[in-house]
Amino acid sequence: MWRGAIIIFFMVSQIMAEEVVPKRIYQTASLGSMAAPKIDGALDDACWNLVEWSGGYVEWSPQENTDPSQQTQLKILYDDKNLYVAFECFDSDPDSIVERLSRRDGFDGDWVEINIDSYFDKRTAFSFTITAAGVKGEEFISDNGNNWDATWNPIWHAKTNVGETGWTAEIRIPLSQLRFSKEAGQIWGIQSTRRYFRKEERSTWQRSPLNAAGWVSGFGELHGLENLRPRMQWALKPYTSGSIKTFASEQGNPFADGTDGRSGFGLDAKVGITNDITLDATINPDFGQVEADPSAIALDGFQIFFPEQRPFFIENKNLFDYKFASSFAGNTAGFDNLFYSRRIGRAPQGFPGLQVGEFSNQPDVTTIHAAAKVSGKTKSGWSLAFLESITANEKADIASSGFERRETVEPRTNYFVGRVQKEFNARNSWIGVMTTATNRSLSPNVDFLHRSAYSGGLDFRHQWDNRSWYVAGNTVFSQVEGSRDAILRTQRSIRRLFQRVDAGHLEIDTSQTSLVGSGGNMQIGKSGGNWRFETGGTWHSPGLELNDVGFQLRADDFRQYGWLNYRTTKPMKRLRQFSISATNLAAFDFAGELKELLVSSNGWMHLNNNWWLNGALTFKPARYSVTELRGGPRLKLGSEFGYRNGIISDARKKLRFTANHSGRWGAEGISRYQDANIALTWQPSNAFSATLTPTYSLFKNELQYVGVVRFNSEDRYLVGAVDQRTLSIPIRFDWIFTPEMSLQYWGQPFTSRGRYSNFKRITDPLAGVFSDRSQRVASYQLDLNGSTYLIDDDGNGTADYFILDPDFAVAQWRSNLVFRWEYSPGSELFLVWSQDAGAFGDASSDIVEGWRDALADVQPTNIFLMKLTWQLMN
């Protein structure tokens, strides 16, 4: 049997083998004593005659490995300080070249780019893109092309010019912005891609099959680099800022007089320790976000993930990344990470204890005194990343009748993150470790937090057959320490619920002052060829806790998953490409109790008219929740069917849209969810665009948790039928005056309303029939008294317990108006007007009318901000 399986395995491997493509080579030359080219896009400098043009681009999409509609050619030169690249993008109709303006990294209209693997590790690269309109974009490429990080912002120079035969581009990249070895003679990996906008066509200098296992590993080679001296870069970026905040005044509150003015200054520094390793440091940093997070409400009790937007943390963030539960199959806690930088500088977690007549003033965010990180990658294959940060002991000011005092709401905290990886086996394999440490100086008011938290892990990846096949895995561990109350709080959190009444493998220990846990993920798969797959398993032990400086949603969870995908690479009669996938998943707790079974199929089609269609079908034949009753028994939710579909119109058009619709239905009418959204963009000119993105969702659930009460020496787990409706209508306007100057507006009205009815108490949580799982609270047993429901459980005419009315209505308005001017490379001026208003509304009102009425008399908070940064560098 095993012999047959092995034979079949190798036969399938050969059938699914990836095509091997010969490598192209470009021979560059040094400028020597010749003058460097003037970066004006004209390409008329004599030095360009030192090297030959290299054309022969091949179409990558939609018709892979054919001649493109328009050809492209490049030249590359260098001196001891810079790399120079020239592009000639031929176009038989130059008047039709699309020159759309956008902010940096907009990638709109016609463009051309060069990718440089100066490490020559076949995993990472630096990407530089220039559009025909002169808009620059850059990305750091990692994970062999699976991750393109547009938050990387090096200093470089480029100009374009439209002429009679097409358009040209001229680029100067300082060598200080790249990383490479000290060897006398070097080989770098290079790739170039051109977007021919009118036909939405991509062509590449080095042919890269659509079914390749990766992007960077397929680069061509740049030869002729001799005696390059790595330049130790340094850069200083001081800033100054000032803001005025206006808000509703509150009579008698000394902290709410209606205005607040602040100013600040600080310094960011970047110093090259070696050419490979960089020190980033910041003193009194400005970590304010220019754009606010979108509004969101979740009824399941779990935290919502928001991406990082602060510049200090997003640079080189790929080196700190340690996602330990992600998979192509999805549904495997893919956001879980040992490091979630938004924990640093978060909003204070404590609140002061106020007496009657007292007022408090609490900081919105925790001050970061200083932070530093050392990161980089060596030629020998070592990747290093270390971060250290100290945040302030934040206190709330409390005042009453002339008496003032202060209480700590966030303790002084030290954060450390370390990451090391080593490549070997001709860069086809790597192994890495990561560790984090959080240490707090606690005081009585915040001793509910962990005094210390440590986590770490080991990960690896091995690839073979031209990197088409891989086996990968990781492990994580955690240990948190604190007072008995702090650890008890951790045991009882919704992620682990050690108090679950029917979980024999879990038990609350009130004497514990520490908690230890583990997790990880093991998988094997194929990432090259038309057929791809992945299978594996991920686990989170009951005691795993990473949320002091990481992000974790689940504990007490084991999941097995499988994913199979087929993707075409050749156009058909009406299709450019299509992809279809199938997924299976089974989830259990650590006692082996089933939580979820899932099978799904999803796919997409790229039509010849450049429209996209996508969709998915999901079936969950079994669902059990161990968190719905917040520590109560495991609850059967029954089977569920779901779907998703979407359509994307031609992105080249001045009027374009994206529309999505999804839904889920639970068996026996237990639950229902539907949402619809559309993103409509109108771009009447190259410099202006407007986008409207309305989203509406409906959520109904007969088993929505309401609360737990004690009656007759028993816990009563109460649920209700919730009807939640949410409406959000973000709108955005972009005025791009030049590639360096823009004015952008974003506004979001948001409202969510939930009404509860049909209250029930759980009686038999695992009953096969839905109606047998609960007993409805009859109307004569329920009395609404103001904001409280009085419940007569035994029906004797006297209220036995009460619950607060769970109905809710939330109304919010958020907006930002941002003027940005990059008056010199790396130096910027920001003028910002931010507005925020929020209120609780009437849940009995219509959702739109309720939003309007709730905010009618609310005075919004306005923030006017000026920030000026200037870049000093070698």
Key structural traits:
single chain, 5 helices, 874 residues, 9-stranded mixed sheet, Immunoglobulin-like, mainly beta
Give the rounded overall mean pLDDT.
91
Main structural class: mainly beta
Q: What is the end-to-end distance?
A: 66 Å
Beta fraction of the residues? over 45%
Number of strands: 49
| Helix-residue proportion | under 10%
Give the low-pLDDT segments.
1-16
Number of helices: 5
Largest sheet composition: 29 strands, antiparallel
Describe the oligomeric state of these chains in a short phrase. Answer: single chain
Q: How large is the radius of gyration?
A: 29 Å
Summarize the structure.
With 874 residues, this protein is mainly beta. It is built from five helices and 49 strands.
Describe, in plain words, how this protein is organized in 3D.
With 874 residues, the protein is mainly beta. Among the domains are: 205 residues, Immunoglobulin-like; 243 residues, no CATH class. Helix content is 5%, strand content 51%. The protein has five helices and 49 strands. The protein has a 29-stranded antiparallel β-sheet that branches. Strands 1, 3, 6, 7, 8, 9, 12, 13 and 14 form a nine-stranded mixed β-sheet that branches. A five-stranded mixed β-sheet has the order 2-4-5-11-10, with no helix packed on it. β8 and β9 form a beta hairpin. The longest helix is centred in the N-terminal third of the chain and has 14 residues. It is globular and about 100 Å long.
Provide the fold topology:
Blueprint: H1 2-15, E1 25-27, E2 29-30, E3 58-61, E4 72-78, E5 82-90, E6 111-117, E7 125-131, E8 136-142, E9 147-149, E10 157-162, E11 166-174, E12 185-196, E13 201-204, E14 220-226, E15 234-246, E16 259-272, E17 277-283, H2 311-314, H3 317-320, E18 359-361, E19 368-377, E20 382-391, E21 394-400, E22 403-410, E23 412-424, E24 429-441, E25 452-464, E26 469-481, H4 484-492, E27 514-526, E28 531-540, E29 557-567, E30 575-588, E31 594-607, E32 612-625, E33 635-636, E34 640-648, E35 655-666, E36 671-685, E37 688-692, E38 695-711, E39 714-728, E40 731-738, E41 741-762, E42 774-776, E43 782-785, E44 788-791, E45 801-804, E46 808-824, E47 827-840, H5 847-855, E48 861-869, E49 872-873
Parallel strand pairs: 1-14, 2-4
Antiparallel strand pairs: 3-13, 4-5, 5-11, 6-7, 6-12, 7-8, 8-9, 10-11, 12-13, 12-14, 15-16, 15-48, 15-49, 16-17, 17-19, 18-21, 19-20, 20-23, 21-22, 23-24, 24-25, 25-26, 26-27, 27-28, 28-29, 29-30, 30-31, 31-32, 32-33, 32-34, 34-35, 35-36, 36-37, 36-38, 37-40, 38-39, 39-41, 40-41, 41-42, 41-46, ...
